[in-house]
Fold:
Amino acid sequence: MKIGAVINNASGVLTPEQNEKRLTQIKTHLNGRVSPDNLAIVPGNQIRIELKRILNDGIDVLIIGGGDGTVSSAANLVINKEISLLVLALGTKNNFARDAAIPLDPLEAIDLLDRMHVQQIDAGEVNGHIFINNATLGLYPKIVKEREKTEKQGWRKWWAKIVATIRVIKRIPRMRMSVEGEQISSTLFTPFLFVGNNEYKEIMNSDFFRPSLSEGKLWLCIARSYGFGSLLLMAWHLTVKGIKGAENLEAHLLEKATVNTWKKNVTAAIDGENYKLITPLRFKIHPKSLRVVVP
Structure:
């Protein structure tokens, strides 16, 4: 079994000293499992280059270390291939690793190689971009853009996100869009549209998670709230009552959907990273298209 590893050396919110210690531990734990030629610990802007280089060496297992954006980059290159992904959760929230029940301790995750239990899970796609978690239009892409701008001003990532959110919701974006899919045909104004890779169901520690990543469905949510007050009320209902109890939130399970926003280009946040896409946006699910090493 040939193994390669690509690790983002700037993921997460650790201090430089803590991050250096973590990377040293990971490198030591990989010693003897991964050859030096197939191990890359690099900044985010070099991840894709190293992924292509190592994948071209004919590996069987790809260890990918970083946040959800880094894992998503790897998924885009190994989808529908006989290459298994082993995820090291090094990001801020690590939603994918949590939902896949992968240990959040990177050393424990590496030890999964000893058992090599592989599960085939789904992936979503929009206009050729694969997503492991979700793709979002409207409010969230603007928050991502503002967060990146705020980080460049010297703010830490977590605080930058809070500041960005406050700045964006002062002037809530509204889009006119049409949505066509199984059991849905709608034209409306909305502040956001959310498409998940499988359904987000329950509340866990004030956050949502997916009980399954292999149901073969996209989870499309549209907000029918137009003002700041109604969005706050919807957020409260989500927290207290759950998704089904939230007012002004329309949700559908489907295998594909087409979204048009009456603009030639639109910004979508795909697994937390912004991309410019040409409309219409064509969403679809790829059932059991990713091989992931799990406990």
Q: What stands out?
A: The helical segments are 16-30, 47-55, 68-78, 95-99, 106-110, 139-152, 157-169, 228-240. The longest strand covers residues 281-294.
